[in-house]
Amino acid sequence: MIIDYLRGLIFKQHRMSGSGNIQMEFAVQMRGDGCREAIKKALSDSGTVTVDTEKGSVLIETSAPWLDIHKRIEATGRRAVLTGFGGQSAVAIVDHGNETTNVRGVIRFCTLSSVPGQRGAVVDGTIDGLSSNGIFQLNVHECGDISAGCSSVGDVYDSSPISSDGSGRATIRYVNVRLDVSDLIGRSVVIAQSDGGQERRLSCGIIARSAGIFQNYKKICACDGVTIWDERNKSIEAEKRERDTVQGASL
Hints:
- The relative contact order is 0.16.
- The chain is an alpha+beta fold.
- It has helices spanning 2-16, 32-42, 66-74, 228-250, and strands at residues 22-28, 47-52, 57-62, 80-85, 89-94, 104-111, 121-128, 135-141, 156-163, 170-176, 188-195, 198-210.
- The chain folds into two domains: 1-85, Alpha-Beta Plaits; 89-209, Immunoglobulin-like.
- The chain is globular, with a radius of gyration of 19 Å.
- An eight-stranded antiparallel beta sheet has the order 9-8-11-12-5-6-7-10. A four-stranded antiparallel beta sheet has the order 2-3-1-4.
- The protein contains four helices and twelve strands.
- InterPro entries: HMA_dom, HMA_dom_sf, SOD-like_Cu/Zn_dom_sf, SOD_Cu/Zn_/chaperone.
- Its EC number is 1.15.1.1.
- Keywords: Antioxidant, Zinc.
């Protein structure tokens, strides 16, 4: 009963602070009016949408999580890659110190205002590998030193509750008025869980600067020379191999 009550408080908090529309930019493989209309229909209730078929770009201003928008675009049969997120943005790939938990995901932070000194950030992301229907903490820690995994990141700078669904996924989208995106670069994100009164750190990652809207025109990955679509396919294949490995180990 206490857990249900706490979960209710979390959902209430996220509904109350889940506003703060931001712009997202996706590169999408499409051609012609049919593609444009299919995408606009799929996103019709998600926000203000602009589709440029010549550039292969979908721009949306929304309060929905980026993963929800991505799924809706790809449900039309077209591949999509997130290429820009809001104005001043930062991102943490949360996949360190998780050798025993396999908890991993991506957390993005986007400024709410272009006014210097005005705080507030949209926190958006997905964390997988959590226990089902659980309550966790998304903690920002003081520093980005992960040389000793998640134990060397310093003290907690900010903390917010998150919850997982029945599949162990936490889909995150809320506004945190305490955060200043420019002050987050170089810090770290830790996903933690209370375990018998002790905090257990499940996974962590360094917060780095990321591309905002119209700041990422990359079509070829400088790291290995492949296109963003090849990178998309590699990510899907890697995710499938990891899922098959986990399933095989559980048999």
